[in-house]
């Protein structure tokens, strides 16, 4: 029989043990103390486990979907391999590693099914994965799943429609949607505002003279000006220093809330500092505008969102349950500004990168633009129905770039029966949009960039109800129609006049996100825009 060799694990253990015992082999008082402390700790820990388990059986949470057993001190045991730590005091989903954000829910759902529960301390969170589960919750039981969770990272300076619940949310959402749909707001349509801004962007691109540049603030200045034009009827000059510093801060805060550490510790100095600075600057700019509008308001001719809101405030001033007041005006305009800038500009930025990585796709878009629009007029939104390829590419850019991977967390508004489970009112819900956008039962090539995911065999555009970058149900993105119009008009206007040249071979372009937390942030890069 072969003799067993030295066992390294065992000898390490023996060395550790021998340190606890003195050289004569006797147990010292210090060793006794240590052993006592460990025993007490284990005793308390096991008791806590028993108490939690008994409490869960009896509590209102007894019929939640299955999931990993929560341990005292850690929301979820195990999974350190994935670097996911759920700290007792943390109130948010905590991805500590960039690359594991998607694999974590996928791994847990492989074990527990598409609907499972994880705990942050004693707080349960129900996670929904894949098209079916997310649709059944957000669409089929839309009212129950329409609440908004408390989100300390972004909430600090950004309440308003995004974080409101109940009657306040209903009133602010209905009003904002009506204004964004173009009713009763000035003479210029939203489409005209975008077409006009796209021309300013073309001019800024021309000035680069086909030299390399980073497109980040070119794109965010143009996109932000659309919201500015809607909210206060006016655009900023691209050279305006205050505007640029506002955008730089928004960009930084969007990145900051998407870093792993900010998810672990939302109250970090850096995060709070950036948000306070950003909030203050925005409030200064917006406050000035609200004052100007109040001084020059003509109730018969509203010029912008602020005018419309002021008129509504006046109409409802006798209504005690009205949510139309200066505070909500300020917060809702800030919401639109923040939600409407980084989202669209990050998608355009990711889009450019993906088009440079896939020059054959860029070439086909150029061809379709030349055929349908030509070079003698500016693109219009009605062109979209004639341009299935371009439409499919833009959908695929949004699907693949997967901007808000875990959605903005919801809560259930009442005790809810869902797939045989009982989810008590107020329980947090994370619909993992990533898992819907990459659902293998809904897309031909879920993991790779491929416009054919949205095309029929004969080249017509194919709708897909798993296309949910804007989420779905009652909380679906309020700016969806605006964002889709912006994406179509900006992409087509730029590609009508320019081609995109990367600074390296397409196969060397890295499309991995810079951050992957609350949002998926595209990497910084440079490119040349060359006139066609
Ligand atoms: C590509 C662009 C965009 C993407 C991918 C996007 C995505 C999202 C997502 C995932 C949500 C959360 C939905 C939920 O709670 O289930 C949301 C909410 C929201 N978005 Fe967008 N968004 C985009 C552009 C915009 C724009 C341009 C605006 C501005 C008009 C905007 C305003 C809002 C607002 C106000 C909410 C909160 C809605 C509510 O709570 O009722 N978004 N968006």
Automatic annotation (TrEMBL):
It catalyses: an organic molecule + reduced [NADPH--hemoprotein reductase] + O2 = an alcohol + oxidized [NADPH--hemoprotein reductase] + H2O + H(+). It is found in: Endoplasmic reticulum membrane; Microsome membrane. Coiled coil: none annotated. GO terms for biological process: epoxygenase P450 pathway; xenobiotic metabolic process. Heme binds at residue 477. The chain crosses the membrane at residues 34-55, 82-104. Cytochromes P450 are a group of heme-thiolate monooxygenases. In liver microsomes, this enzyme is involved in an NADPH-dependent electron transport pathway. It oxidizes a variety of structurally unrelated compounds, including steroids, fatty acids, and xenobiotics. This is Cytochrome P450. It comes from Chelonoidis abingdonii.
């Amino acid at each position: 029989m072969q003799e067993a060799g030295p066992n390294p694990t065992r000898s390490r253990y023996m060395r550790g043990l021998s340190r606890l015992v003195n050289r004569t082999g006797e147990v010292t008082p210090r060793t006794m103390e240590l052993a006592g402390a460990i025993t007490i700790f284990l005793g308390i820990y096991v008791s806590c486990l028993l108490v939690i388990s008994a409490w869960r059986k009896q509590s209102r949470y007894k019929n939640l979907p299955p999931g990993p057993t929560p341990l005292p001190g850690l929301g979820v045991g195990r999974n350190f391999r994935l670097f996911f730590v759920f700290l007792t005091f943390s109130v948010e989903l905590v991805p500590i590693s960039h690359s594991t954000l998607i694999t974590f829910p996928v791994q847990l759902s492989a074990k527990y099914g598409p609907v499972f529960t994880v705990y942050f301390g004693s707080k349960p969170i129900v996670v929904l994965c894949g098209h079916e589960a997310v649709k059944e919750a957000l669409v089929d039981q839309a009212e129950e799943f329409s609440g908004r969770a408390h989100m300390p990272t972004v909430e600090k300076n950004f309440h308003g429609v995004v974080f409101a619940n109940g009657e306040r949310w209903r009133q602010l959402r209905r009003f904002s949607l009506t204004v964004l749909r173009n009713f009763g707001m000035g003479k210029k349509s939203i489409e005209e505002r975008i077409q006009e801004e796209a021309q300013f962007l073309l001019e800024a691109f021309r000035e680069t003279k086909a030299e390399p540049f980073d497109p980040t603030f070119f794109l965010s200045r143009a996109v932000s000006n659309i919201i500015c034009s809607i909210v206060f009827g006016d655009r900023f000059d691209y050279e305006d220093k205050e505007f640029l510093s506002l955008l730089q801060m928004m960009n930084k805060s969007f990145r900051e809330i998407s870093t792993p550490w900010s998810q672990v510790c939302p109250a970090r100095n850096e995060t709070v500092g950036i948000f306070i600075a950003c909030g203050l600057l925005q409030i200064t700019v917006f406050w000035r505008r609200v004052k100007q509008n109040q001084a020059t308001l003509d109730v018969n001719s509203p010029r912008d969102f602020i005018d419309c809101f002021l008129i509504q405030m006046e109409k409802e001033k006798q209504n005690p349950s009205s949510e139309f007041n200066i505070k909500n005006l300020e917060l809702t305009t800030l919401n639109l500004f923040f939600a409407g800038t980084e989202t669209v500009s990050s998608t355009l930025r990711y889009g450019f990168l993906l088009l440079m990585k896939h020059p054959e796709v860029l070439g086909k878009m150029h061809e379709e633009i030349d055929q349908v629009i030509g070079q003698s007029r500016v693109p219009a939104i009605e062109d979209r129905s004639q341009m299935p390829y371009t439409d499919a590419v833009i959908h695929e850019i949004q699907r693949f770039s997967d901007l808000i991977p875990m959605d903005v967390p919801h809560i259930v508004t009442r005790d809810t029966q869902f797939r045989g489970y009982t989810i008590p009112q107020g329980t947090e819900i994370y619909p993992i949009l990533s898992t819907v956008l990459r659902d293998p039962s809904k897309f031909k090539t879920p993991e790779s960039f491929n416009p054919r995911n949205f095309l029929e065999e004969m080249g017509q555009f194919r709708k897909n109800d798993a296309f949910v970058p804007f989420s779905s149900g009652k909380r679906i993105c309020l700016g969806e129609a605006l964002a889709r119009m912006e994406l179509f008009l900006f992409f087509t206007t730029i590609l009508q006049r320019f081609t995109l040249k990367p600074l390296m071979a397409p196969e060397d372009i890295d499309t991995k996100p810079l951050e992957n937390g609350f949002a998926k942030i595209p990497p910084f890069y440079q490119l040349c825009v060359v006139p066609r």
